[in-house]
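Team,

Forwarding the record for the chain on the shared tracking sheet. I've put the sequence and predicted structure together so nobody has to dig through attachments.
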Amino acid sequence: MDFLFLPLFSFLVGIVVGLTGIGGASLITPMLIFVFQVPPAVAVSSDVVAATLMKVVGGIKHWQQKTLDVEVVKWLALGSVPGSLFGVGILHLIKLRAEQNLNEIMLHLLGVTILLVTVLALLQMLLLTFFPQLKLPELPKFDLNTQLGRWQTLSIGAFLGCVVSLTSVASGSMFALVLIAFFRLDARKLVGTDISQAAILLLFTALGHLTLGTVDWNLVLPIWLGSVPGVLIGAKVCQIAPQKPLRFIIYSLLMMVSLKLVY
């Protein structure tokens, strides 16, 4: 397929992201692999670099508006950045020892990650829809004023940072679940904190992927061209669009995509 279609497809993905908040990497990376026949290693690296710009712009905006929790961003980043660099180191090792298997390994990692993220998000949505009165046991809240709370934040940040560097997925979705579950952030600061920590994480992850030599700027630039206006339009329309049916449809598609990636 002609790569002139890539900005159009990215524009449509951007609208979906703006409408539903579902992570662009979960949609763009499989699109590059299945629609444009891009090797998985190139798709993941190019998507990481492409996603960085949007996150950085969004993070700066939230910083200016003071709609973020600076302490949470700081401690998550102190864990996620080393974690992401460790993940890039793993990719370098795989490429060095078994370059022919790099694409296959990344394909399976991507599929498993999208499947896990989608199942968790779908489960959360179904529980809130059909059992709104259900009281689930609360997870412990991380207290950043204590050494334990800081180590807990560093640890979970490092794990998710490694996942992001290996697959390009979860810089927003999984971290958002962590912010809700362990930090109890209010809605006003949740989005800003999520975007800001993702911006820092992806900035270093993108630099790491550039050293792999698997970033294709012929993919990155069209994705920027299409996805940025798409996200802005989707964000405008989301106020009138039915969220739950849209999310259910997208989650169902992601389930099928992830199973195809794995098998």
